[in-house]
Write a structure and sequence with these properties.
Elements: E1 3-5, E2 12-14, E3 18-19, H1 32-44, E4 49-51, H2 60-71, E5 78-83, H3 96-110, E6 115-121, H4 131-142, E7 146-152, H5 156-163, E8 168-174, H6 186-193, E9 196-200, H7 223-226, H8 244-255, H9 264-273, E10 280-281, H10 288-296, H11 305-318, H12 320-323
Parallel strand pairs: 3-4, 4-5, 5-6, 6-7, 7-8, 8-9, 9-10
Antiparallel strand pairs: 1-2
Helix pairs in contact: 1-10, 2-3, 5-6, 8-11
GO molecular function, one term: oxidoreductase activity
Enzyme class: oxidoreductase
InterPro entries: AKR2_Oxidoreductase, NAD(P)_OxRdtase_dom_sf, NADP_OxRdtase_dom
Length: about 325
């Protein structure tokens, strides 16, 4: 699998990483055995980049990764975690004292003395422009608690603000065939500044697998059930904020345009990887077979201008009016 340098971390990471939200919670139940199978299948497929967060399963995802890496010390895996969602979402909570507490907990969970990459986890918008916040993050780097820091954002304006900061190593942002706005300004700005781009929610919470129908149901404890109205967290994290029925229709149309021998999900991942400025895409997986199929997308060639044109056409017809102004 191709590898690219992750921004200012200087680390070489696979173009397909692994998002591990599913291994913690909010997607139904995942056993430890299943979690380890997903991690192993990803590594066997060439993945060397895991993304997690301290709130995924209240630390369960981090703990799985920590135990997996401890059991496989020969692996050279870059682990990115996120912090900030364990408290009320007010700017006053983004302090050095809390950062120390949160990173110490993640270090215990991941069984790491120094965290490879810590990202602010979609904090209030004003946090991205706070000098004190970046000073605190720089302090953690100087003390050896973390090697690098970045941000995870909901909106493009938040990404652009963080990119201005000289020590921001990476930006994690929702980017997929149903969310094209980051292509306009964020990716060019990040490339110019040497900031890595981690593309999350690349399959629009599974919509871009092309397997859903309007009658598809999800478990009660799955965010695709309980967060469709954004009552638990930003609605853009669930199906990229698109209406489910509309998303199913658009995904079915896109499926009909995918080249032979490639799944709709793989085509969607390959499209993201082909965008200039993207470092790594981090689909999640709930099974080893799903993880292996995702990893295969990292070895696929650009699907061509025709497919890219179709992606933009579908976005323009189904989503641009509702999605582009919001995020």
């Amino acid at each position: 699998m191709e590898q690219r340098i992750l921004g200012k971390t200087g680390r070489s990471v696979s173009t397909v990483g692994l998002g591990t939200w599913q291994l913690g919670a909010d997607w139904g139940s995942v056993t430890e055995e299943d979690a380890f199978a997903v991690l192993e299948a990803s590594v066997n497929g060439g993945v060397n980049f895991f993304d997690t967060a301290d709130v995924y399963g209240d630390g369960r995802s981090e703990q799985f990764i920590g135990r997996f890496l401890r059991a496989n010390p020969e692996l050279d895996i870059t682990v990115a975690t996120k912090m900030g969602r364990r408290v009320d979402q007010v700017p006053e909570n983004y302090t050095l004292e809390n950062f120390r507490e949160w990173t110490d907990r993640s270090r215990r969970n991941l069984q790491q003395d120094t965290l490879d990459l810590v990202q602010l986890h979609c904090p209030p918008t004003s946090v991205y422009s706070s000098d004190e916040v970046y000073d605190a993050l720089d302090t953690l780097v100087s003390e050896g608690v973390i090697r690098n820091y970045g941000v995870s954002v909901e909106r493009t304006d938040e990404a652009l603000e963080a990119i201005k900061r000289g020590n921001t190593a990476s930006v994690q942002i929702i980017l997929n065939a149903f969310r094209l706005k980051p292509l306009d300004e964020v990716l060019p700005a990040a490339k110019e500044a040497g900031v890595g781009i981690i593309a999350r929610v690349p399959l629009a919470s599974g919509l871009l697998s092309g397997k859903y129908t309007p009658d598809t149901e999800f478990p009660e404890n799955d965010h695709r059930n309980y967060n469709r109205d954004g009552s638990a967290f930003d609605v853009g994290e669930t199906f990229s904020g698109v209406d489910f029925a509309t998303g199913v229709k658009a995904a079915q149309e896109l499926s009909g345009l995918v080249p032979d021998g490639v799944s709709t999900a793989q085509a969607a991942l390959a499209w993201v990887i082909a965008q200039d400025g993207v470092t790594s895409v981090i689909p999640g997986a709930r099974s080893a077979s799903q993880a292996a199929a995702n990893a295969e997308a990292g070895g696929m060639q650009d699907l061509g201008t025709g497919f890219a044109h179709n992606v933009r056409d579908i976005y323009d017809r189904y989503f641009r009016e509702a999605i582009h102004p919001r995020w």
